[in-house]
Amino acid sequence: MLQDFKNIRLFDAVDAEYILSPENKGTPASLHSPALDVFTDFMDVKPVTVSESMPIAEALEYMKSQHVRLLFVLDNKDAFAGIITAADAAGRKVMAFMQKNQVSRDQVQVRHIMLSKFNIKTLTYAQLCDTRVGDVMLTMKDSGDQHVVVIDESTAGVIRVRGIISSSDISRRLKISFDIMYEAKSFAEIENVLSENGGL
Predict the structure, then answer these.
(1) What is the CA radius of gyration of the chain?
(2) Could you give the CA distance from residue 151 to residue 38 in angstroms, rounded to a whole number?
(3) Could you tell me which residues come within 8 angstroms of residue 87 by beta carbon, excluding any fewer than 6 positions away?
(4) Which segments constitute the CBS domain (predicted)?
(5) pLDDT for the residue 72
(6) To 5 degrees, how large is the angle CA 164–CA 44–CA 13?
(7) Residues 38, 91: Cα–Cα separation, whole Å
(8) How many CA atoms lie within 13 A of 197 on its CB side?
(9) Average pLDDT for residues 27-55, to the nearest whole number?
(10) How far is CA 88 from the centre of its chain?
């Protein structure tokens, strides 16, 4: 059996200096870069999902363990139902639901707090392919959203969640503070910061 295979020559690692990561590919993103540069594509990266019936405390712990601030929520048929963010899972929405429904925290489930897909605005993948990072930043700043869900259509005509863009990913790629994106009084302020950092 082993005669069908061959030994592969191994090399010393002593000359390797850097560890490659997806962010290191190509040139750093700028406002004029394609929006695809800051897009998390679920064709390449598996989305982090939870059941809508998961207790909210468990969902928050799961986010921490997965190092994400947003989870995609699935219903009991494993269909897309919505999203839940760390801010929602740890914030006022939980307390408001507890008070309104006279329940304890361990009775609060993801479905009680999540943003339903019926209230989520999306971009299409086709739009994204013809969009720049600056276009997405301006759209997110005006809407106040920290994430944009991207959808596409399969060859069979099924609408699917294709991926996501997050403001934290944009700020990391552009090397500007997350807060600057949302506290700037105008888009010109963001442009000024980026030009000072050489990212315009």
Answers:
(1) 21
(2) 15
(3) 69
(4) 43-103, 114-180
(5) 96
(6) 125
(7) 27
(8) 19
(9) 90
(10) 15
**Cα distances (angstroms) measured from residue 46 to each of 40, 42, 115, 143, 164:** 9, 6, 21, 27, 11
> Distance of alpha carbon 151 from its chain centroid, rounded?
13
Distance CA 133, CA 151 (A): 17
Per-residue pLDDT, 200:
52
Classify residue 97 by burial, with Cβ atoms within 10 Å: 0-12, 13-18, 19+. middle
Instruction: Name the one residue in this structure whose structure tokens are 């405390």.
Output: 57
Distance CA 98, CA 10 (A): 59
Single-letter amino acid code for the residue at 76: N
Residue 94 Cα to chain centre, angstroms: 22
Place of tokens 């269909």: 79
- pLDDT of residue 34 exceeding 80: yes
Enumerate the H helices of 34-185 as residue ranges.
56-66, 86-90, 92-101, 110-113, 125-128, 133-143, 167-174, 178-183
Phi and psi, residue 32, nearest 5°: -95, 0
- CATH node for 34-197: 3.10.580.10
What are the pLDDT digits (tens) for 47-90? 999 999 999 999 999 999 999 999 999 999 999 999 999 999 99
In the chain, where the domains are located: 34-197
